[in-house]
Write a structure and sequence with these properties.
CATH class of the largest domain: Alpha Beta
Number of domains: 2
CATH topology of the largest domain: Rossmann fold
Radius of gyration: 21 Å
Strand order of the largest sheet: 3-2-1-4-5-6-7
CATH superfamily of the largest domain: Glycogen Phosphorylase B
Strand content: 15-25%
CATH architecture of the largest domain: 3-Layer(aba) Sandwich
Number of helices: 15
């Protein structure tokens, strides 16, 4: 039987990357591959995956660890995984910029790697140790058996700056597990504009969305803004809550905190509009927000900014509504247009789901992994 080890940092049930890997595993399992996930250190509450225990295998290397420190746990878990690895079973390492060099040291191992962000922005740690690990990472890239990257810009960067082999470097699109959005109840959506994700200013431009909503609220006072997810940090929380108070929209804005992956599809579908105000920065240039696929699967109108590879797949007023990045007025105008023309916007939303099936289906993308590793 074909087998694959997938190595990730921790199991975070609200993480887009975590759900991405699970979707790949389920698709590979359908093709007869036994997939085992290994996690190096625990997330906040030592969460474990309960959803797919009958279909996938999970090993929490941090279990029974005497350490509470993340870095000591990582070192301990890496040593354990190093002993588990064998030439017969390929290894698929997700992100893990600071660890992948040490996996490559074991002889005979087939090592595959995926990255979904610019590693300088997401993954690289500071200081002398971080710089040293980053150099080791760059040295490892040309020696991989396969490399998967989420956008053409990121692929070009790895080839030009890291020396990745173009013949072993492939695009692996953002994906959605469609099963999570099947058989959702058909409820009348509430007058709500919803964002989901880690509440971050740099990554997703939450202040732009809040300011735009304040302008919308002047014309459509019945609408609410729902921000779903944990704050990136205390500073971000203080800044966003202060902004809501300053704009005098406390009653219209809801911070829900984290929502489970099981409940997220229904929550999104219960909203009239889904929004993402991602700014035009280096992270957006090289990455692709996974939440976009989940938004589109709901068949609700999606209002999002023109950044990165968005227009390689999506078309303004055809399958989504596209906004100029970092432009509060334009975002507000597009939200108001969506509300005022909601019958037309719903048709756009339905075509958005068709775009997901065409470009972002998990089984189609997992086929790329299967072919490279097993064929």
């Amino acid at each position: 039987m074909k087998e694959l080890y997938i190595l990730d940092s921790s199991y975070n049930p609200t993480s887009a990357g975590c759900n991405r890997l699970l979707a790949f595993g389920l698709a590979l399992q359908k093709k007869g591959v036994k997939v085992t996930y290994f996690y190096l250190f625990p997330y906040k509450n030592k969460e474990k995956c309960e959803r797919y225990k009958d279909e996938l295998c999970f090993v929490y290397l941090w279990e029974n660890s005497p350490f509470s420190n993340k870095y000591l746990n990582t070192v301990r878990s890496m040593r354990m995984f190093y002993e588990i690895m064998s030439p017969e079973i390929p290894v698929y390492a997700y992100s893990l910029l600071n660890c992948i060099y040490f996996l490559r040291l074991k002889k005979g191992i087939r090592l595959y790697h995926e990255y979904t962000e610019n590693p300088v922005v997401v993954g690289k740690i500071g200081g002398f140790v971080g710089e040293w690990l980053y150099r080791l990472y760059k040295r490892t890239i040309p020696r991989l058996d396969g490399l998967f990257l989420i956008t053409p810009a990121l692929r070009d960067m790895y080839i030009e700056e890291f020396g990745a082999d173009p013949n072993k470097t492939f695009l692996l699109n953002m994906i959605v597990d469609r099963r999570r959005f099947e058989d959702l109840p058909e409820l009348e959506p509430s007058a709500t504009i919803t964002y989901c994700g880690i509440l971050s200013e740099f990554k997703d431009g939450l202040s732009v969305l809040i300011k735009a909503f304040a302008m919308v609220n002047e014309k459509h006072s019945k609408y609410k803004l729902r921000l779903v997810g944990p704050f990136l940090d205390d500073v971000t929380e203080q800044k966003l809550r202060s902004l809501v108070r300053e704009l005098n929209i406390l009653e219209q804005v809801e911070f829900t905190g984290s929502v489970s992956p099981e409940n997220m599809p229904s929550l999104l579908k219960a909203s009239k509009i889904l929004a993402l105000a991602r700014p035009d920065n280096i992270q957006a240039k090289y990455g692709f927000a996974t939440k976009i696929g989940e938004y589109l699967m709901t068949e609700r109108p999606v209002v999002l900014t023109r950044v990165g590879a968005i227009e390689d797949y999506l078309v303004d007023r055809d399958n989504c509504i596209i906004v100029n990045p970092d432009d509060v007025c334009d975002f507000a105008d597009k939200l108001i247009w969506t509300i005022d023309n909601y019958d037309e916007a719903i048709k756009i939303g339905k075509r958005g789901r068709e775009a997901v099936i065409k470009y972002f289906d998990s089984e189609n993308e997992a086929e790329k992994i299967y072919k490279l590793i097993f064929e």
